Amino acid sequence: MERRQTSWIRLAWRHYLWVPLLPVVTAVVLLLVGQSLSHNAALLDLHGADTIATVTDREIVERRDSDGHRSTDYRLRIAFTASNGVRVTDWDSVSRETYDSVQAGDTMPVRYVAHDPAIFEVEPGRTAFSARMFSGFGIVILGIAVAIGAFLGRHIPSKRRAAARGAVREARVTEHLRSNVRVNGRARWRLSWTDAVGETGRSDLHRQDDLPSVGSVIVVYLDPRGGRGWWENDL
Length: 235
What we know:
It is a single chain. 33% of the residues lie in helices and 37% in strands. The chain is α+β, with helices and mostly antiparallel strands. It folds into two domains: 21-149, CATH 2.40.50.660; 155-234, CATH 2.40.50. The strands form two sheets. Strands 3-2-1-4-5 form a five-stranded antiparallel beta sheet. Helix 2 (21-47) runs antiparallel to helix 4 (126-152).
């Protein structure tokens, strides 16, 4: 009997290992933003210069995400002239307290990078805090993505061993078992079997019409490490 051929790519697809890709991408973006902000915070710490800026405008930006959660961003538009003569006019996010404490036309202290005045902060330490926040969220989301991937792919090594060098047996389908999982409104099912030496096993989840009928003979592969059986269509 010719052995069933399988691959990491095939098994990764069958085990939905593409699901964690979105949180991985999100985590990478957050970590890159955090790294950029951390770099700016270091520049402000090492090469920071202080001056007085004028508040030229104020605004409140409200956002709503796909889950209906609202977020509010308090922003001040400030203008100042750096020591090298460069005129900077830009927006900066601030706390609610800082926003409420000033009006257009007021002046307030600002710190900027001497050789790059476009990098500045109105509230001391806010850049470093934002860097830690983005990096922290990125690490948490990346950890969740890794955990999801590890859970979804936990059986792949066993299947690879079974396909490569495991014993091959015939087995008889004894039952179709309905699961609580539904995809596109359709229930997913498992088949159970008993092989030629009396060992039992269950398949992965499938549509019921993709399963052989009860009483059919199927081929299973045994993981040489532990002896777990896998239906050939799950490899």
